[in-house]
Every structure is written in structure tokens, then in C-alpha cells.
Design goal:
Layout lengths: L1 H31 L4 E10 L5 E12 L4 E3 L4 E2 L1 H15 L9 E8 L6 E2 L5 H12 L8 E3 L2 E2 L5 E2 L4 H10 L4 E4 L4 H14 L2 E4 L3 H8 L29 H22 L9 H17 L3 H18 L8 H13 L11 H27 L5 H29 L8 H21 L5 H15 L3 H23 L2 H12 L6 H16 L3 H29 L24 H33 L1
Parallel strand pairs: 3-5, 4-6, 7-10, 10-11
Antiparallel strand pairs: 1-2, 2-5, 8-9
Length: 605
């Protein structure tokens, strides 16, 4: 009996194991079943030069094989497609559904008929909508979301927050969820909230977004803003600086000092917590300058001055016209040095920024003239644009002041004009061929034509290079993956450069790479800046070769043609090479014989 029972148990084990496996597989199949579901959300966007607009995004899910589909009308650009892929990964994270068992469809619609949608700023909205569909939750109809989706569900910075908030308020929404806001953005959004019963709240990740986005309609959203300094990368290496780098460091120090005077002299900026914030910014900028990142420091100081100016504005009705007059006076009184063989790059960068400032004021004037009525937040937006013009005027004046101290031989204006007109025309043709419109590049093309009309040929060349770099980055995004763009950026970051603006923009690209969470993440984000750096290097290297300008960039001498082997006189090194080659050939032959014998033996067996 004991023996029979002993043998009966092993026979039953396979049956129990089979039943357990069947139950397990049934449960797994249920876990992997993808729901047939959908969710919609409003996505704010910057629409060309017309300010903000709203798109409706609908996400649908059904059983499938992991496909991610998107609309072709409007055309969805490569940056948005990459963002969709990241959104899918983050939305499925931690859920019972497998991405490979689902088909996800993204649908964008625009009542105004926008031809294309591109950029990463819809990433968090797409993730929230998809997550809601997968978890059978309803997204409230009275909010919008802007922000890039990053690995781990974090939200990434985006531009145009004010325009997007205004569009959301005009549509009648209750709130907008955003990534980290700049000080001036928060001030304008606070004014908007007072006038339109509208709330702007910072969020840090997907969980925070879901908690607000899936609450019932009309649930109060608490305004949220945190005052945080820009983070200095721990792994930031010091850059070797040449004479031009040290000259640019002087520009950066002057802009940083002006920022210190403007922020800490009086007003709200001189009081905690803002005074602590600005002192940290000033200290970080000084460190950046000493390490060879003058452009980054100057740019940070530029933005801080805009923030500080907003802090001291009145609570209502800022005097736009008076500030326009201040900016115009700065431009009219800015130095305009003559171009020579040694200072052309400095004049190019300085005068380009002065013309940017003039164009920005013209843009504000057009806005004021076309608006039937102007709300308080619109006037604050106008003030922001004027402050940008003032900042560019300051930077342009500093660059041209240095240019005026640099002596050199006269350049041929006819040659310079011919180069500038040809280059601007070339970039216009490329812009016309690009199906995905680049508003920033088009704006710089407008300024380049302005420079041509005013005979500022060096400035026109500067903007032509800027457009070229921007377009190259756009093509990178269209034709390659993020990792390919990252590799391209890393290559440019390591390329030796000699021109003023090649090195200057390269330093900013290197900073962005160091600031990224990983080399690939940072490099992909730095690609446009580094493409501009390469375009500047190429542009002013060509100008130097054509005009005699001393940039330190010389024409590359092609390597000598290789002579046929029969024409060479073999000396000792060549004889040694021949001996080595013969030895290698003999070794290969012997190895081949040995392998042949072994294969023959194996076939025999």
C-alpha cells in the first residue's frame, strides 16, 4: 500500500502543474487584454506669429500589436512623434496592460486648420490622456496641459507658456498645468488669473498631473509657483579660452554687473526671497565666466534682467509706450563701428542684436495697432517683448564697443555685400523647401533682409548662419532618431573651432550637454545650438577666405594624391612593410591548409 501511494503522487503532479499553468496563463491573458477606450484633452500651442491657440487631442486604445498611430492632417512633425513614443512608454509604466498588446491612436484637431503640429510640448498632455484611457478615468474638460514628458514621468521645460495660458483663458478653461515657470511668466499669469478667474499651476511629474486632470470639472486648482535657481552641472569641465573668448568674457561680466545693479538696487528684487535668488544667479554666472562659458552666463543674466524688470512693474496698466521710447533710445544711441578685417565677427554679432531689437519693437507696434482692445495681461506680454529688445540692445552695444577697439584693414564692401545677399537668398530657398515651418528661422530671415536694406552686411551674414544652423537641426529631427541627433551634437561639441561665434555657441551647447540627465539626453537638446555653432564656424571661415578677414580659420589643404605603387622607390620602411605583408600572407595560407585538413577529417567522420 505504501508503495502504491508512493507511485500515485508523481503521476498526479503533471496534472496539477498543467492546471496551475493554465490558470496562470488565463490570468496573464486577462492582465494583458487591452481596453477599448478613449480620452480627450485640450492642448495649448504657439501658432506661428499669431500667439497661442488650442488643439484638441483624442487618444484611443484597442487590442493590437504595440502600434502607435497618429494623424496626418494636420501633419505631425518628428519632435511630436518622438514625444508620442515617450508618452506611450510612460503611460503604460506600472499598469497591468502590456504595450505590446495594445494599439494606440493619437488624433489632433484644430478648428482653425493649422497645417502642422510639431514640438515636444504636448508630451505630458498625451501621457495624461493615454493614462486616463487605460485606467478608465475621465479627463476634466476645463483645463489644459503643456510640458514635455521625460523619462520617469517627469515634466520638461517648454516655451510660450504665457501665450498658451492666454489661449486657454480665451477658450473659457479654468486652469493650465505647466512645468517650471520663469518669474516674469508667473507675474503675467498671476495678472491673468486676477482678470479672468484663471489659474496656472506648476507640476513636476505625471502623478501630479493625473491627480488634477482627473478630478471633477470645476474642482479648484491651487496656483503653484516655486522660486528655484538654475542648476549648475556637477560634471561641467572648464574650457580652454583664447583671446576672443576672454574678450567675450568681458561682455558677459558687464551684462552680469548690469543685472546685479538692476535686481538688487531697489524694489522687490532687493528683498527676500528674490534677493537670495538673484545673488545666487550672479554668483553662478561669475563661475561660468571663469570656466569659459561666457555666453551661458550672459544669457542667464539677460533673462534675469527681464525677470527683475517685471518685479517692479505696477499692478495694472504698465506704460508700454514709455518703455518703447527707452528701448528705441538705446538702439539709436548704440555704437556702430566700421567693419574691418579684425572685428567683422564682433560687428556681425553686435549689429545683428541691435537689428533684432529694432525688429522686436516693430512687432510690438504691429500688435498694438491691430488689437481692438488690449487687456492688462496683453500689455504685460508687450512689456516682456520690449525688455527683450532692451536686453539685445545692451548686448549689441557691448559687442560693438569691443569691435570699436579692434584695429584692422578695410574690407571690400562690394565683396561683403555679394556674400551676404547670396547667403540670405540661399537660406530663403531652403526655408521655402522645408514643409515643417520654422517660425524662429523665418523671423531671423526677416531681420536678415532688414540688415541687407540698411547695408549691415555683416549682420545679415550672422543671421544667415543662424538660419542655416536652425534648419540643419530641423532636418536632423526629421531624418534621424534622437540618438542620432545626440551623436551629431557630441561630434560638433568635440570639433575644434576658431571663429568667435563658432566657439561661443559651442560653449553653450557643451553646457547644455553637461546639464542633461545623460550624455544622450543633453546632447539631443543641445543639437540646435551646436548646429548653429557649426554654421557660424563655416560662415565666417568662408567670409575670412573671401575677404581677407583674419579669423584664424584657414582653407583646408587637400591631402596629396597617392602615387601608383610602381612609381614609388622602396626604402627601408617600405621593405619592412613588404616583409611583414609576406609573413602575414604565409601565415594565412598555413592557417587555411590546417583548417582545410580539419574540415576534411570532419567530413570523413
Amino acid at each position: 500500500m505504501d508503495s502504491s501511494r508512493h507511485f500515485a503522487q508523481p503521476r498526479l503532479l503533471p496534472i496539477f502543474a498543467f492546471l496551475a499553468a493554465l490558470i496562470s496563463l488565463t490570468g496573464a491573458a486577462q492582465a494583458l487584454a487591452c481596453p477599448v477606450s478613449s480620452a480627450s484633452i485640450m492642448v495649448p500651442a504657439v501658432v506661428g506669429q499669431q500667439g497661442g491657440g488650442l488643439l484638441r487631442l483624442t487618444v484611443r486604445t484597442e487590442p493590437g500589436n504595440g502600434s502607435v498611430l497618429t494623424t496626418i492632417v494636420p501633419i505631425v512633425g518628428p519632435a511630436t512623434q518622438a514625444s508620442q513614443s515617450q508618452a506611450v512608454s510612460e503611460a503604460f509604466r506600472g499598469l497591468q496592460y502590456s504595450q505590446n498588446q495594445c494599439e494606440v491612436e493619437f488624433f489632433f484637431s484644430d478648428p482653425n486648420g493649422a497645417p502642422s503640429v510639431d514640438g515636444p510640448s504636448a508630451g505630458m498632455a498625451m501621457t495624461v490622456a493615454l493614462r486616463a484611457a487605460l485606467t478608465n478615468k475621465t479627463v476634466r474638460r476645463d483645463i489644459s496641459i503643456t510640458g514635455e514628458i521625460l523619462p520617469g514621468g517627469k515634466i520638461g521645460l517648454v516655451g510660450g507658456i504665457i501665450d498658451k495660458a492666454q489661449a486657454s483663458a480665451r477658450y473659457g478653461l479654468h486652469a493650465i498645468l505647466t512645468p517650471k515657470q520663469e518669474i516674469y511668466e508667473n507675474i503675467v499669469l498671476t495678472r491673468l488669473g486676477t482678470e479672468s478667474n484663471f489659474t496656472a499651476a506648476e507640476i513636476g511629474n505625471l502623478d501630479e498631473a493625473m491627480a488634477i486632470a482627473t478630478a471633477p470639472d470645476n474642482t479648484p486648482v491651487t496656483p503653484k509657483f516655486s522660486l528655484k535657481n538654475r542648476v549648475m552641472p556637477d560634471n561641467l569641465p572648464a574650457r580652454e579660452q583664447n583671446g576672443n573668448d576672454l574678450l567675450f568674457a568681458k561682455v558677459a561680466m558687464r551684462i552680469n554687473s548690469a543685472m546685479e545693479n538692476r535686481t538688487l538696487a531697489s524694489g522687490i528684487g532687493a528683498k527676500p526671497p528674490y534677493s537670495t535668488f538673484f545673488r545666487t544667479e550672479i554668483s553662478q554666472n561669475e563661475r561660468l565666466i571663469s570656466m569659459g562659458y561666457g555666453y551661458t552666463a550672459a544669457n542667464n543674466a539677460f533673462l534675469s534682467q527681464v525677470d527683475a524688470a517685471f518685479l517692479n512693474l505696477p499692478s495694472a496698466d504698465p506704460d508700454v509706450e514709455a518703455e518703447m521710447a527707452v528701448a528705441k533710445g538705446c538702439i539709436d544711441n548704440a555704437p556702430r563701428p566700421a567693419v574691418n578685417s579684425q572685428n567683422l565677427e564682433w560687428v556681425a554679432g553686435g549689429t545683428a542684436r541691435l537689428n533684432w531689437a529694432r525688429q522686436k519693437l516693430d512687432d510690438v507696434n504691429k500688435t498694438l495697432a491691430s488689437a481692438e482692445s488690449s487687456s492688462s495681461e496683453d500689455r504685460y506680454t508687450d512689456m516682456r517683448e520690449i525688455y527683450y529688445a532692451e536686453g539685445w540692445c545692451q548686448a549689441g552695444s557691448e559687442l560693438n564697443t569691443i569691435a570699436g577697439t579692434i584695429e584692422g584693414s578695410a574690407l571690400n564692401d562690394t565683396v561683403l555685400e555679394g556674400l551676404a545677399r547670396r547667403r540670405v537668398d540661399e537660406e530663403a530657398a531652403l526655408l521655402a523647401q522645408n514643409d515643417m515651418a520654422n517660425g524662429d528661422a523665418e523671423w531671423h530671415w526677416t531681420v536678415a533682409n532688414r540688415s541687407l536694406a540698411e547695408k549691415d552686411y555683416a549682420a545679415a551674414l550672422f543671421d544667415a548662419a543662424y538660419i542655416s544652423g536652425s534648419q540643419a537641426a530641423a532636418i536632423d529631427n526629421l531624418n534621424s532618431s534622437g540618438s542620432a541627433s545626440a551623436r551629431q551634437a557630441l561630434r560638433i561639441a568635440d570639433t575644434p573651432m576658431k571663429t568667435v561665434w563658432g566657439r561661443t555657441y559651442q560653449s553653450q551647447g557643451a553646457f547644455i550637454i553637461a546639464q542633461g540627465n545623460s550624455s544622450e539626453t543633453g546632447a539631443a537638446g543641445a543639437n540646435q545650438v551646436l548646429r548653429i555653432a557649426q554654421a557660424m564656424e563655416d560662415e565666417f571661415g568662408l567670409v575670412g577666405n573671401s575677404t581677407g578677414m583674419d579669423t584664424g580659420v584657414k582653407a583646408v589643404t587637400p591631402p596629396p594624391a597617392i602615387k601608383p605603387a610602381g612609381m614609388r622607390v622602396i626604402g627601408f620602411p617600405d621593405a619592412l612593410e613588404v616583409a611583414v605583408a609576406v609573413s602575414v600572407v604565409l601565415a594565412v595560407l598555413l592557417l587555411g591548409v590546417s583548417i582545410g585538413r580539419r574540415m576534411k577529417e570532419r567530413r570523413a567522420y
